[in-house]
Amino acid sequence: MPGYLCRLFAVAGLLLFGAPLALAAETNDAWPGLVQDIFNNRPMSDGSDVIGIEMPVRAEDAAIVPVTLRTKLSPDDSRQVVSITLVIDQNPAPMAAKFQIGPDAKVSEISTRVRVNNYTDVHAVAELSDGKLYMAKTYVKASGGCSAPAAKNADEAKARLGQMRYRQFAKAGEGPASGVREAQIMIGHPNNSGLQMDQVTHLYVPAFFVNELRLWQDDSLVLTMEGGISISEDPNIRFTYVSNGAKRFRAEAKDTEGHVYQREWKVDDSGI
Description:
Layout: H1 2-27, H2 31-39, E1 44-46, E2 51-54, E3 65-71, E4 81-88, E5 95-101, E6 109-114, E7 120-128, E8 133-140, H3 154-160, E9 164-170, E10 180-187, E11 210-217, E12 220-227, E13 236-242, E14 248-255, E15 260-266
Parallel strand pairs: 1-8
Antiparallel strand pairs: 2-3, 3-6, 4-5, 4-7, 5-12, 6-13, 7-8, 9-10, 10-13, 11-12, 11-14, 14-15
């Protein structure tokens, strides 16, 4: 009986004192500190009519959570979106990616996949051509995404390292060389977070990820990405832009070990 009572009191203690601690951890607001660290405390306005962020409320797989960033400026607005920064507040390295938009590309939608390590707010911050910042946010329930084991083994990942796939999609009613286009770039890369453990050696795998991506139509810049450990294995970026009639599409990626990967395709081709 005494042993049973001890266990009962132990469980009661966890419920009584552990719950407030868990609640405090969940409600800890990291955002004010991130505004200071990432944006130098620049003022931000409500961005509900400027930028949208879409993610599942509860992630099916915390290591590959889909996210879509969508600009919402009206066609008669003279301002343009210059950059979009994606921040996953409770991740070990919260700034997941910063996208710079080419001046003539008119990118209006960007989709990718990210790791989410804890229940967290996720912020999208758009900088407009007026020099002001506009913020939108959503909430995602996920855990363990940054430490989840890689889907591919080391040999398979090495064999795919730097391979790029490209797909181009035409919007309904648009020709292949004009109007709004949709494209996708996929890069073979383990994008190791530095928090994953080798299942054989039980040692942590060093961080190794794509930290820069640049995309052009002919010689006109479409999009750049400054990436971090929160971008999922085999980075996948899908986006819309306005074609300038270019015949070629180019991609250049760099990773944290200094490798440079470059490919070029005909605009209407798809493949490796």
